Amino acid sequence: MKAFGPAILAAFLAISPLAHAAAQPAPTYLPASAVAQLDKTSVIVEGATGDKVKSTIYVFMDPNCIFCHYAWEAFQPYEAVGLQVRWIPLGFLKADSQGKAAALFDAADAVALLRENETKFAEATESGGIKPANPISFSAQSKLNKNSNLFKDMGFDGTPTIVYKTSDGRWADTSGMPALKTLPAMLNLPEQPESPSLQRFR
């Protein structure tokens, strides 16, 4: 697996946002042992629940990641028809990323706070729309540390990283904002209308 370190992270952050969004690397397949670790991490579950769940994905995200924000927006219509998104918060893009991720973990209603973060997201400054926790609770810090360690151990190096089940039953991952035209196959759901603001990602 890839090593995750300052050099790789710096290189990732140096990539222009549009270039990162446009890149659509071929999916890589994950071993069952790696996928099993995802169920042990701390997540925010959004979208379909119970017998309404038709498809499940995991998404490593940073509250200040603009392409996580676009992915969140793109997933909304799919959540209405059976998608469950298990968001895995990290905090590394900005100085207040950890505080915002911690706020999500400590919220009485994490899904509502995640929605606030995204609906109030400031695209001009690439900043999530919630206040960071200060100080960060021990519980939230422990969850963030475990998520970060899993992210590194799985060889990932950018957000959003999406882990999804392919049509043949294998788990795969892809990094960056997916092209809208790839979502139905990735999510195993019928194509849904998307916001006009996302059409540049088609």
How does this structure look, described?
It is built from 8 helices and 6 strands, in the order ααβαββαβαααββα. Helices cover 38% and strands 15% of the residues. Helix 5 runs antiparallel to helix 6 and helix 5 crosses helix 7. It starts with 5 loop residues before the first helix and ends in a 15-residue tail after the last helix. The protein has one domain (6-12, 28-175): Glutaredoxin. It has helices spanning 6-14, 17-22, 32-38, 66-79, 97-106, 110-119, 138-153, 183-187; strands at 28-29, 44-47, 55-61, 83-89, 161-165, 171-175. With 202 residues, it is α+β, with helices and mostly antiparallel strands. Strands 1-6-5-3-4-2 form a 6-stranded mixed β-sheet, sandwiched between helices.
Give the tags.
alpha+beta, globular, 202 residues, Glutaredoxin
Topology:
Layout: H1 6-14, H2 17-22, E1 28-29, H3 32-38, E2 44-47, E3 55-61, H4 66-79, E4 83-89, H5 97-106, H6 110-119, H7 138-153, E5 161-165, E6 171-175, H8 183-187
Parallel strand pairs: 3-4
Antiparallel strand pairs: 1-6, 2-4, 3-5, 5-6
